[in-house]
Design brief:
The complex is a heterodimer. Chain A is an alpha+beta fold. Chain A has three helices and seven strands; from the N terminus they run H-E-E-H-E-E-H-E-E-E. In chain B, helix 5 runs antiparallel to helix 6, helix 5 runs antiparallel to helix 14 and helix 6 packs antiparallel against helix 7. The relative contact order of chain B is 0.18. The chains are: A alpha+beta, B alpha+beta. The interface between A and B is medium-sized, with 27 and 31 residues.
């Protein structure tokens, strides 16, 4: 008798499972969360906090907020950030002041932990939301964040 | 008489098969040295080390803030819970108390992580047993949680949202609504999981009575999490040693006594319901408060040993920190659940068939970076 009840149970559970899949077959697109990437590149917007890569925003006068305090370099767990700095004479006060020469960021080593941005006292570096970071050569992953000829905005102290 | 002679002449030989390190039915780079006699398994010898990254040694080099992001990479499916464990251990050492708001948010995100982890496991379990459909259904529902994480924490998997002393930033304004939306959605989908897989006769035959682990063995091997609880070993850290906000919520500890693959499956399905009920209780009244308790920029733990245990998605995770009073720990040890659970595998699959080994491994839900670290 158990032979027939096994067959009955087998068919019954099979149909129960198929009623789920069949239901989705009929209303295929309802509740679908699939995104048509990369066709939706223009409309695809990442969340504000998405960690794409570290960037240094500059204003219209080509000025940034980085004082060269090296907090980010110390906070980084794997040495993704290197700061080349120099002491230059401030033209206004005549005193020597620490200035960044290059803020080097190795995107290839970055683990996107966010500790550098947490530690920055002047919010000089922020997250960018770009999500297509692949390049053809490894050297493009080493970036200099401060633009050429840029300088620190006046009045920013660490 | 003639028949008997033929039977006696049939000689079989044992031979070795390497299962992994790259195998479609293995999760990650786990190499199993199988000694088999035909289809029957005589011995299973796990060979580890293919994804060893020496996380514990790297912790000795890093500051206490920097340790946290390394634990993301251990059990990457319960990354937030790992982060929480380290932060709780450091906070214990510093003797600081985080605000209620931090505790509640940590608990909610931990439970979301557990849900996401169990969803992925459910999909993969079905896939290991030959039902590919489950994989897509699970990933559909997991996408909602990943979106919540991405909006609030900034990353989908390796979130690093915890810092010693609190959270990196406050929850996103949309967080509460999104979590509620997800709960409404998933409460209709979880019964579907049962209809699709749990009752299926093929699934039942592959899992019922397969890989039976007794309660005594579970305790002596140190199997925790759903593996231990499937054998009737009540080992839920959330219940026994409540941390964060688990002492203010009511939930049932999922406990089954059969000890087979189906029992471990049922534990996880029940845990998903319990996780949803925990989030339900907390999401409406997240208390106001500070998001981080200020710590010094360079954290120095006092001299001594600190231990914190939490319930990760796969079992108990212990974080042991030995400090000599400097800014780096002297020694860090993670007691990962996967390592202890893996040691059970040889014991319970001896004498079973190879296909049963895959089914048993699926019910164990191994994450290999957690075992190797």
């Amino acid at each position: 008798m158990s032979y027939f009840s096994d067959i009955y149970n087998g068919i019954k559970t099979l149909l129960t499972g198929m009623s789920v899949t069949g239901g989705y077959f009929i209303r295929a697109r309802k509740g679908s969360i699939t995104q048509q990437y990369p066709d939706n590149r223009e409309t695809l917007k990442m969340f504000d906090r998405f960690r794409g890569e570290v960037v240094m925003p500059h204003d219209e006068n080509n000025e940034h907020y980085c004082t060269g305090c090296q907090s980010c370099e110390i906070a980084c767990p794997n040495g993704s950030i290197e700061i080349v700095w120099d002491r230059q004479v401030d033209p206004e006060t005549g005193k020597k002041k620490k200035m960044i020469d290059k803020h080097i960021y190795h995107l290839g080593m970055c683990t996107m932990c966010g500790l550098c941005i947490e530690s920055c006292p002047t919010d000089a570096i922020v997250w960018a939301q770009n999500y297509e970071n692949s390049v053809y050569d490894r050297k493009y992953l080493t970036k200099v964040l401060n633009q050429p000829g840029s300088k620190v905005k006046a009045g920013i102290e660490d | 008489m003639v028949e008997k002679e033929i039977v006696n002449k049939m000689k079989t030989e044992e031979y070795f098969v390497n299962m992994g390190p790259q195998h479609p039915a293995a999760h990650g780079v786990l190499r199993l040295l199988l000694t088999i006699d035909g289809e029957i398994i005589k011995n299973v010898d796990p060979d580890l080390g293919y994804i060893h990254r020496s996380i514990e040694k790297m912790c000795e080099r890093d500051s206490y803030q920097q340790i946290v992001h390394l634990t993301d990479r251990m059990d990457y499916l319960s990354s937030h819970i790992n982060n929480e464990a380290v932060c709780l251990a450091v906070e214990k050492g510093l003797d600081i108390e985080v605000s209620d708001r931090v505790k509640v948010i940590r608990t909610i995100i931990s439970e979301l992580t557990r849900l996401a982890s169990h969803q992925l496991w459910w999909g993969v379990m079905g896939m290991d047993l030959g039902a590919l459909t489950t994989y897509f259904y699970a990933f559909r529902d997991r996408e909602y949680i990943n979106d919540i994480f991405e909006e609030t924490c900034g990353a989908r998997l390796t979130m690093n949202y915890n810092i010693p002393g609190g959270l990196m930033y406050d929850i996103h304004p949309n967080f509460v609504n999104r979590v509620k939306e997800f709960l409404v959605h998933f409460k209709t989908k979880l019964p579907e999981y049962d209809r699709l897989l749990t009752g299926n006769v093929i699934f039942q035959k592959r899992t019922k009575g397969v890989g039976v682990l007794t309660k005594e063995d579970a305790i002596s091997y140190g199997a925790t999490g759903p593996v231990g609880r499937g054998s009737g070993f009540a080992c839920d850290v959330r219940k026994k040693h409540p941390y964060s906000a688990y002492d203010r919520v009511e939930f049932k500890e999922a406990l089954f006594t059969e000890g087979d693959s189906l029992a471990r499956y049922k534990v996880r399905i029940m845990e998903m319901w319990e996780s949803m009920s925990i989030i339900d209780q907390l999401i409406d009244n997240i208390p106001e408060g500070d998001i981080k308790t200020p710590t010094k920029a360079v954290i120095k733990l006092p001299k001594g040993e600190f231990y914190q245990r939490v319930e990760a998605a796969r079992g108990e995770l212990g974080v042991y920190i030995n400090s000599t009073g400097t800014k780096n720990p002297y020694r860090v040890k993670f007691r990962s659940s996967g390592f202890s659970n893996l040691s059970v595998l040889n014991h319970i699959t001896k004498g079973a068939k190879i296909a049963d080994l895959v089914a048993t491994m699926a019910s164990f839900d191994f994450v290999i970076p957690d075992i190797d670290r």
